[in-house]
Amino acid sequence: MANTTELLSFYDRDFCLTHYAAKLKGVYGGAVVPGAAVWEIYPSFLDAGCRDEFLRVFQGGSPASIDLPPSSGEAPRSAFVFATANGVGIIESRERDGRSVVEEQEHVILLHQATHDVLTGLQNRRRFGDQLQQAMAALGGSNPKAALLQIDLDDFKAVNDTLGHGAGDTLLQLAAGRICDALQDGVSAYRYAGDEFAVIQLGKEQPAEAERLAGSLVDAFKKPFVINGIPVFVGSSIGIAFGPEHGTDGEQLMKAADIALYAAKTDGRGCARTFNRSMLLLLEQRENLRRSLRTALERGELYLEYQPLIRPPSSVIGFEALLRWRHPEFGTIPPNVFIPIAEADGLMDEIGRWVLEEACRQALTWPSSLTVAVNLSPAQFLSGLLTDTVAQIIDAVGIEADRLELEITETVLLEKTVDNIDTLNTLNVLGIRISLDDFGTYYSSLSYLKNFPFDTLKIDQYFIADLETDLKSQTIVRSIMNLAHGLGINVTAEGVETSAQARWLIKENCDCLQGNFLGKPLGAEAISDFIKRSPLRVVRAMEESNRAL
Fold first, then answer.
1. Which residues form the EAL domain (predicted)?
2. Strand partners, 384
3. What are phi and psi of 511, to 5 degrees?
4. CA 262 to CA 240: how far, in whole Å?
5. Which distant-in-sequence residues (6+ apart) come within 8 Å of 127 by Cβ?
6. 97: confidence class by pLDDT, cuts 50, 70, 90
7. Integer distance in angstroms from the first to the last C-alpha of the chain?
8. Are the C-beta atoms of residues 183 and 171 closer than 8 Å to each other?
9. Is the pTM of this model over 0.70?
């Protein structure tokens, strides 16, 4: 737009001016300002003949050349009007040979199509790369810093999957509109790829202006988008980087902004983060873990610990197998760090099979009345081979099916619900017990309990932590237990850390307790000793509970 000699302008769906060539302002002066109505610049579009043709193009019709009435002493003029994704573009022509005018009009349209995204009307990836390099080359003087904001839509895939690609396209167009609405004059937005957008900000007071803009964009995406009458909530995560301090060329700056964007998503999404060197260090560590995890199993770095499950007053009824990773360089890596990596990299089938087989073999060394509980990752359901894998391991190890309890979280039931329910039903037919873990968090739905006969509900430790003092937690836990018992389902309370929590749960007839107060996770070699000695803490808690009654 800055370099063209054409009288070129673009208007949105509200007929308001969004972009224009500098030459247009030179001809029409003060009428050319962002937001000006098209008829303020071209009043003849209000006339019946011109208006009908203009509206036909505006509504998606083929381009048209509209003759404009000449002003006194002026040569004949015409306006070439063509539709864009967000409205129309206009090229005004004066005093030219008809053929050359057409050729130049076609050239401008082709240039626009080559540098703009067809769906959203924003400048495209090619244009973004050129503009970023130009911005980096121009740093200094009046542009001491260049700010790059990488914007990614949160949960966009869910909209495509549930409402269809047409709704997804509409969402991208609406999102582009919200981004443009937040920009000030002279700031450019781009559709980089898919649901990824970018903004280049020059000549501003940094970092304050970039962070202000990022905050405005995050807030703008907190409001629902309405698509076909359905409110859709899609947030935005934003990574910010500045040149030259975070990169002296476009590629370096993009990498820094990508790392900051990754940090924003890791921190919970729906937020903005500015690049710093510690982010790069964390990312490098994560990549190191990712590479190490691929060989951790064959190197014997993965192992299991077992936390006891206690039925009041003092019965050990089984153990839950807990996966651990002892990294040769970083020490023990928490499961909440490495399991998401394994899921993202497609390693959970192999790791999950090893955990299941190892836990079942260990359970064979216990008294036959004890069960072993094994957690399943949602990723293990994706291959469709889970039931075959479980059946093969049970046969190979020789353990009774009813001694195995598989724990799933509610997230398993969110993806491919019908297929996953079928998988659970098949496992149930094999005689395997199924437990719904972390109940009360995420997307709890009573329909799960109606559609599948779970053997156990495990109440999330979030509700147990303040059970002694918080009446709301007490009411929720009591309600879950009454609901489960009414459906013939056992209840296990996770995260029991104090005698007071144990007393309250025992008094309310909780079927099973689990937590460090009752028994910390044990190595395989310590299980036999634990089974032999009575869990006296539970006995005392039961006695105290009886005295209270």
1. 286-535
2. none
3. -70, -35
4. 11
5. 115, 116, 190
6. very low
7. 82
8. no
9. no
